[in-house]
Design goal:
Elements: E1 8-10, E2 13-15, E3 20-21, H1 37-47, E4 53-60, E5 72-73, H2 80-92, E6 96-102, H3 110-113, E7 118-119, E8 133-134, H4 137-157, E9 161-164, H5 171-176, H6 191-194, H7 196-209, E10 215-217
Parallel strand pairs: 3-4, 4-5, 4-6, 6-9, 7-8, 9-10
Antiparallel strand pairs: 1-2
């Protein structure tokens, strides 16, 4: 138990203990994904709890990747100012400020994104069952760039760490799973092929923010 409260260093960050608040949806962004007073207070309180780091909930890297109306969005420079205020609030309470970047893939509703969801393959989400559009290679490359664009915005906003959301059935996870990825090109087939999308995202982000900036993958 004692180790929980001991500091450690990762990259350039000093964690004051081993306690981290992970990315958890609050649904406190406004309808356009902007920062609100409610979300600033929500994260201020969590940062003041004594944890070493607070990771802001999944924020969409692209309009077609939004999962809900009240999700944060980081796919345009106009969002940087609001996220700067959020990072500042977290750090003022003595916590490291992290942020998770995300694309829903097929795990969203056409009512939210105003189009058919995109996915590795033409297989609908079992819980939503809407039509999906399989991504072309060109579209895949564009989403890779959008993840890196989002990471750059997070750095500009003052966050200390960027986390890539690769779990919970969302787009990266859809590529990784043989149950949702039946592609026959280099992005499917073997685990190496299915992991290519995730690998390219990490490599593109690293090429933008450098090797020393803290980057995690969930």
């Amino acid at each position: 138990m004692q180790m929980l409260f001991t500091p450690f260093k990762a990259k350039n960050l000093i964690f004051k203990n081993r306690l981290v608040m992970p990315a958890l949806a609050s649904f406190l962004f406004d309808d356009d994904g902007n920062i609100t007073d409610a979300i600033l207070e929500h994260y201020r309180r969590r940062a003041a709890s004594g944890v070493s780091m607070v990771i802001v909930e999944a924020c969409a890297v692209s309009p077609e990747g939004i999962v809900s109306r009240h999700q944060g969005r980081i796919f345009d420079d106009r969002f940087i100012e609001g996220f700067s205020r959020l990072a500042k609030v977290i750090k003022e309470e003595g916590a490291i400020a992290g942020i998770q970047i995300h694309h829903a893939g097929r795990q969203t509703s056409p009512r939210v994104i105003k189009q058919d969801p995109v996915a590795p393959s033409p297989l609908p989400c079992p819980t939503i069952r809407s039509n999906v559009q399989p991504l072309t290679k060109e579209q895949i490359r564009e989403i890779v760039k959008k993840f890196a664009d989002a990471a750059e915005r997070a750095v500009k906003a003052g966050f200390d760490l960027v986390e890539v959301h690769g779990a919970h059935g969302y787009l990266i996870n859809q590529f990784l799973s043989k149950f949702s990825n039946i592609r026959q090109d280099e992005y499917g087939g073997s685990i190496e092929g299915r992991a290519r999308f995730a690998k390219e995202i990490i490599e593109e982000i690293r090429s933008r923010i450098g090797d020393e900036f803290p980057l995690s993958f969930k």
